[in-house]
Amino acid sequence: MPDRSFLAWPFFTPAHRELADALETWCADNCADRYAEELDTECRALVRELGAAGFLKLCVADGDSRPDVRSLALARETLAYNSALADFAFAMQGLGSGAISLFGTVEQKREWLPRVASGQAIAAFAMTEPECGSDAANIQTSAMRDGNEWVIVGEKTYISNGGIADFYLTFARTGEGEGSRGLSAFIVPAELVTVEERIDVIAPHPLARLKYDNVRIPADAIVGEAGEGFRIGMETLNLFRVTVGAAALGFARRALDEALSYAKNRRLGSGTLADNAVTQEKLADMALAVDASALLIYRAAWQQDEGGVDNRRAAAMAKLHATESAQAVIDSAVQMHGGAGVTRGVKVESLYRDIRALRIYEGASEVQRQIIARDLLKGAST
Ligand SMILES: Cc1cc2nc3c(=O)[nH]c(=O)nc-3n(C[C@H](O)[C@H](O)[C@H](O)COP(=O)(O)OP(=O)(O)OC[C@H]3O[C@@H](n4cnc5c(N)ncnc54)[C@H](O)[C@@H]3O)c2cc1C
Asked: What is the pLDDT at residue 35?
């Protein structure tokens, strides 16, 4: 049972605490002993089950109100603690439909959000390209207007849910201005897009390279105004940035619990590993890292929900600290497990792989540092 004392912090309302309980119960009933034998089938099933349980409603706008970031973060922390794949299935429904929630028309929201929330439609966010990742302003995929249609040509890569999605929220160049000023966002039904290659990564989930070969979509498939795509992409990423940290926190908390349990049970000399001072020092550092991440995450999430402050620096700090420190916490847990720590089937081994990509996607750690530093410098006196 994870430490849940943080739920008493003032960032939360009673509704958040009830949600945390419901998530915990759902995970206990649905995540234990779940193996991803067939990844696509498993992910589709998880999306449907999370939808049926009502949790995917958290991922989408409710009328004009934006998703509640504290609820998203609680969900991701709890799901990640129990199952990386369940967290992935949940998170992508939010990221993939986020632009529609934040900037979609009433019709777009009506068409897509209920299906995303029920798990009937699987969402994907298609920004990265073979020649452009961190530097999203350089997107080369183009969308040209042809009468009542847009024609999209280009390639996207490392697209999560690639191959199983029902639509790809796609960013393409429409040319209203240079660089970031000439991008737009579109809802592209998956059947129009070619999956060129499935990509196998260290912690597998559906991931693909996609080709847009003169894909024709109606004029009203654009989200927001032409030329607003970069802002739409960045605001969507900013909404979910804290929640990447929350997933990392779930992994780290699980690693700490695995380490505690292992240290208490593993014989070492006349006692156990837990009796050893070096082990205790490690455990203390792990607990400190976990608590610091939780404070940063729930502070940033609370700021985002309450509004009135620009929380970009806080969100970047939360993502940066939680993902980087989770890697260190998990590494300590692996080390403490000795040979068992690198053995397939042992939880800390999969956590070691699960955490890695979070330091790269949705803004690599270096990019988060840049966001923080620029914000600091903006406010600094000369
Ligand atoms: C598992 C996984 C899932 C993904 N899912 C999606 C998805 O669903 N949709 C999507 O659009 N993309 C997705 N991506 C792509 C991801 O967002 C990119 O990998 C990420 O933006 C980095 O881009 P890149 O790989 O091209 O690396 P590059 O941009 O080439 O950067 C390489 C490295 O350079 C460093 N770097 C980059 N910028 C700076 C800087 N400004 N200052 C200093 N150093 C810097 C960082 O260490 C970075 O890791 C996913 C990636 C992975 C691994």
From this structure: 61
